[in-house]
Every structure is written in structure tokens, then in C-alpha cells.
Amino acid sequence: MGATAINEIPIIDVDTHVIEPYDLWTSRLASKWGDQAPQVRWDDAAEEDAWFLGGERLGAAAGSAMAGYHEYPPHHPRRLDDADPATWDATARLARMDEYGIEAQILYPNVGLFNAGRVMGLRDSELQVDIVRAYNDWQTDWSSAAPDRFVPVSSLPFWDLGATLTEIERCAEMGHRGVIFTQNPMAFGLPGLDERHWDPMWAACQERELPVNFHIATGDNGLLAYNGHPDNGKHANYASMGVSFFMGNARTIAQLICGGVCHRFPSLDFVSVESGIGWIPFALSALDWQWKNCGVHLEHPEYELLPSEFFQRQIYGCFWFEDATAKAALDILGPDNILYETDFPHPTSMSPGPASGAMRPDDYLEQTFAGTSEDVLRKILHDNAARLYKLP
After folding, report:
1. Which of 60, 161, 226, 279 has the most CB atoms at less than 10 Å from its CB?
2. What are phi and psi of 60, to 5 degrees?
């Protein structure tokens, strides 16, 4: 396939992040919450702007704004003003999308997504839910700059099932095209994905035709506190942490299938986000083997499909930097369950810069998928995502 053909495909980028503005919560939460609202202030010890919640530090305010940055992670911009404006400004983001040949982006958070446990630790349950609602409102407003190109998906107060169901309905009415859910609720002391506790939520999403998106690092985030011995070096430890997170959704997929969630909700779609696809053929082969080897087909005769067939019916994986493994997975899985992402502007994103080995998305696609038919490439770059997220 030539560059001209790639440029003619309206690419849908299914995993990008918008860096939150410093006043997101202080400007939207009720005044009664005062200093309890998530807020940014200068951290003297770390010499950077940082998010704080309930007096405790959450993380660097511009820590995820790595697109085009001149240092290797875990180094990052000290302030949002030091980051590429496309990481937080809608107009600059649209210009970058045009440059990279991206038609639309599915939008994910940073602060709330990876700090759910800290939000749950707040004593006031009303404040917990208000924090989530305020983020979803902000994402809706930010997306309104280009509603055909920016696609919001809903964060959920998943620790409160009633509030979760309410937020699903509220955000669907606002135009959100999916929900974000923790890949491992047991990490927060909640029932596992395979328990019937979550059936009302699965049912609500199925009824609304909202795909459930499992982003990496939304379960046990212990690696953020300890990701290796300091003697290893901070860059080596950071690299190890990223790969460890990438593989976490294998368990999520196994629980959805073996726990009967896919069987009970056959029209509900699930997406494994920012986790690659090269490992998926092995995971499905292992699940099919264990299914028969362990007698699951006898224990559950009502399950009419093999795990690999459940996957083919309703689960999707996303790729970005992979080369040979992406092509191998495509050859084995076929094109119907594969989506493309850039992860902009995170440290592993397809965002070239002085300290990045990444290529521009269009250059990467041209190099990696040379020789792939236009019909196949159109499916994985546009059609699958357009169908999944109900886009034009």
C-alpha cells in the first residue's frame, strides 16, 4: 500500500489523552468543597507543578505531556507551559491531528483514571462522585470544539454501583460514546469482573450500545510506587514498568470470557486499551486449550463458543508502536478485532521528539504495513472504530 492510499483513510485514533487544565476541578466543583477539590500547586521538593488531593500529592501536573519532549522518561515537563500545547489545547490538537493524518480521537483522562484509589479514599462519598462528574462535564465541553473529531468516553465512580448507573445514563445523553472501567476492581476491594455484582452495569452499557474500555494501569498500580531497585537506573525501571502494565489486560480478557460475562451479554463490546496485540494470539490459544483441557466445555455446556470465538464476537485490541508482532497478530486474528491508537501524548506514544524513537503515525503505518491490502488497513484504521464508537 502506498502513502497516498494511507492518506485517503480517515484514521480513528482510539486511545489519546488530554492533559487536564489546572482549574478543571476548582472551577467546576461546588464552593463548599473548598481546598478538598483536586488542585495544582508548586511542589518545592520535586520542583514542579503537581496535582494534590486532600493534601496529598497525586502526581506531576505535566507528567503525561511527553509529546515532543527533549528528555527521556521518567523526566517530564515541570509545568504545563513547558509542554507541547497540543497536549492540552483543542485548536493545537486539531492541527497536530491534521499533520499526522488523524481524523478523530477517542479521549482518555490522566489524573482521575490512574488515581481512582485516592479518590475512593476521600471521606465524603458525594465529593467522590462530584469529582468524576466534573471531569466528564469538562471532557464534554472540551470535545465540543470539534464534536465530529473529539470522542468523549465516560469515567465512572465504579465503587458506587448506583452512582455508576446514573453516570452512564447522564453521559450517554451528553453524547459520550463509551465508558472506561477498571481492569481489576479487586485491587480496590470490590468484586471481581466475573462476579454478578457488575451485571447491572454490563446491562446498562449493552442497552446503550456503549463499549466498555479497559485501559492499562487502572487496577493495581503498585508499580507506580515501586517499579524496580534504584540501582537498576530510573530509565531501565521505567521501561520495565511500562511493559508490565501492557500485559495486565490478559487477565481481564480471561475473566470476561471464563466468568461468563461475554456469554450473558452477547451484544456488549469490550476494548483492551494501550496494551498492544502481539500477545493476544497466544492468550487466545492458551484460553482455548485450557477451556478443553480443564473441562470448561463440560462444566458450562451453555457456553456455545470457544474463548477465541467470544473474542472474535465482542473484544478488541489496540496497537501502536508494534511492527512484526502487529503484522503477525493481524495474520492470525484477522482484521475485524484490531484498532489503531497513538497514545498521544504519553511517554510511549507515537509522538516524535528529540528523545523519542517514535515515528509519525503516517510514516509508521506506511513502513509497518507495506503490502497490506487497502481493505484490511481501512478496517483497522477506521471501519472497526467507526462501528464500535458509532462514528460517521
Report:
1. 60
2. -65, 135
Please report where in the chains the cell 512484526 appears, as a residue: 324
- The DSSP secondary-structure symbol of 320 reads S
The count of domains in the chain is 1
Locate the DSSP E strands across the chain. 11-17, 39-43, 48-53, 56-60, 102-108, 150-152, 179-180, 212-215, 270-273, 315-319, 338-340
For 295, the domain range is 3-388
Domain with residue 103: its CATH number is: 3.20.20.140
Pairing assessment for the beta strands 39-43 and 48-53 based on DSSP bridges: antiparallel
3 state SS of 9: coil
Mean pLDDT by 10 residues, the chain (392 residues): 72 98 97 95 97 93 96 96 97 97 97 85 95 98 98 97 98 98 95 98 98 92 73 88 88 97 98 97 98 95 97 98 96 98 95 90 93 95 98 88
